[in-house]
Amino acid sequence: GWPTYNFSVVVDDVSMEITHVIRGNDHLNNTPRQIQVYEALGYPLPKFGHVPMILGPDKKKLSKRHGAQSVMEYQTMGYLPQAVVNYLVRLGWSYGDQEEFTLNELIEKFSLEAVGKAAAAINPGKLDWLNSQYIKRMDTDELAQKVLPFFEAKGHALSDLDLLKKAVLSFRERSKTLVEMAELSEFYFCEEIVYEEGAAKKFLTGELLPIFEEVIVSLSKTTILNKGNSHHLVQVLAESRGEPLVKIAQPIRVALTGRAVSPPIDEVMEVLGKEKVIKRLQRAMEYIGRVNVK
User: Fold this and answer.
1) Judgement on whether residues 278 and 203 belong to the same structural domain of the protein
2) How much is the pLDDT for 67?
3) Looking at the domain assignment, is residue 150 inside a domain?
4) What domain range includes position 28?
5) Sites in the chain below the pLDDT cut of 70
6) Which of 116, 132, 148 is the last residue of a domain?
7) Which of 40, 39, 46 is nearest to 13 (CA)?
8) pTM over cut 0.70
9) What's the CA gap between 146 and 48, in Å, rounded?
């Protein structure tokens, strides 16, 4: 019952040498009771503070229907600890127009006096934006280590850390979470990619066979594949056929990634490397052959 709760809370806080009790204003009615327990037991009073409750986007009390309920869930969803701390502190508290804070800045600038009186509402879009900013600025090696478990969860045992770092660089500007980064860049690590149905139907057609053959021939003469010679290869091919660059690049994109949307094709080719590019073009040609037979 309530008497037992209030007694145990006080004993627990005293045993942990708690000096400040800061909690939601839904505990206001418990505070005078707990003060009486402190005084009855002869313990010094901590400083009490009560802050407004956090609401869901619909301005209603948080519940499971609003999404993640614990810090560990946010970790599983691919949010960085720094972003979550930054976001949670900014709920109901502000420091001018500043949006992003380091941990040291938060320690220095935070004050209970600046916490608003009204309840703050969760804004998932704001958390996504903050997380994307931290992803963009994080050291590449550290970011690669952070995203690695999300690839492993998809069944990819990654031994090529250089490829992982390249994939991270390729998608760090496009990813809001580590989960999204792993999903978007997964095609770099698949032995066999799956074509999006609409993209394959539109771009993997019979007239593309000669183009893919030309790309393979050109690649076989190339020692090192990088963004520069990849772009030049596609551009020369487009010019020789009198076609706009996109009309040549887009089918190659689908052949290499399985998707109609990806990073620039020269970047994709550089990250995949010569052998994988040739292998995927050959597989796309086989796919076109099977579809045409049907």
Assistant:
1) yes
2) 64
3) yes
4) 2-51
5) 1, 64-69, 292-294
6) 132
7) 46
8) yes
9) 37
